[in-house]
Amino acid sequence: MVKSNGGIIGPDNVTTGGFSGVASGVFKLGEVTDLIRESKWPEVSPFINTVPNSCRFNIASSDNLTRTSDSGNKKTFTMSFWVKRSTFGTDQVLTNITAPSGAQGRVFFEGSTEQLEFHDVSSGGSYEIRYITNRLFRDVSAWYNIVIAVDTTDGTAGDRVKIYVNGVQETSFATATQPSSGLVTSFNSGGAMEIGSQQVPAEFFGGYMSEVINVDGTQLAPTSFGEFNSGSGIWIPKTITGLTFGANGYYLKFTNSGALGEDFSGNDNDFTVNNLTSLDQSTDSPSNNFSTLNPLNVNPANTNTFSEGNLKAQLNGEGTTSTMAMASGNWYMEYKCSGNITQWTGVEEIDSLISLQYTSANKSVALYVGGATMYVNGANQGSGGYGSGWSSGDIGMIAFDADNARVYFGKNGGWWNGSSYGASSPSTYVAATTGKTYYFRFVKGGNTTCDYEVNFGNPSFAISSGNADANGFGNFEYAVPTSYFSLCTNNLNVI
Are residues 184 and 330 in the same domain? Predict the structure, then answer.
């Protein structure tokens, strides 16, 4: 349970008090949810979903958005991106424009250092603007808001380019090449515009983007796009209103799964969708951040491949975990068996050692699908059966009661009841250790690679039915058990 400005929110009751104009008393969690939605809870609501969607970009499939830019203001403009990264090691482009003259402007993460670079290069290859942050962007679990505001006509050279990260202006740069007064840039030049890539050389972005905005003709502050939460002090998105986008301005919200490049600025500056599908519309957003697999929580000696916003992984070593941990509450996830069915799936203590197999060093509960056996803290629990009929295409289910350290396993809509996957709700559990914090854990078994496709409520694989938790979050193949929730920040904030 977590404190929330005047009360403790738990699965059974909540106490508040001492706050003028807000709820006071003892409430069930469902009642708390209603009070939050009615703005009667003493904290800025985590359920105000200002941004419902993002777009998931995958490097391997060369996902991007393209259009021919209109000719606009090449001296004054503002770009804003909400970004959640998923992979490192290569240059990853947020946006690129190639002007008719051959000049080029780009915003990207440098693959060798993971710094952010913004530059404008003349047709002759000279840097006319170049800013490289000292800040490194290596967090795969969080959303960044990046705002680049340009006015080359400003009389103060240091104010011609302003870069903000999560509402705060960057002042420390490895490189800071300021534009000359009145410089005509490549941006808004009527050239080839790309989101998520540059074609020559071919470089793509891996991760999630949301609220991608270009304002043509105005240098704006980050407060046009976000604000600091009054309760937590965290930079969060706000409803976009009152912006004058200009002729080449656009606003990509990604709320139309059938047209992810649709522009909502009123300009109809729509982008062409390349290799993206409706499955790439995601509910993982800066308003509600979902757990993914963690490509950093691995043994670097092993070769593992992560894709689809870290919801798919080909494991060739000791596996990985969820990015979010669970100390209390009830949590639900699904995973799809694909490829080689030698998967070890379950929960593991946050401070446990990563190992190829579930040895005694691993404080964990794990179902070995390949052998239909259960391991607890590295010990084989014997031939319990656990559904020997697992096959490719099956969807596994895990319900984790973190308060009581109980792990329930299911398959294709049924829960293990001691002899089969026949129970309609979590039935027979495997005990973990109480009082510990756990990750969901995924390990390959055997001597070959192992494929995982996971769903913490934000799937990368097709869902035929669609089921949300009681708070309205998540998209699952099967019904979420009563009082269990998807692993996302809006749920973590109140459970």
Answer: no
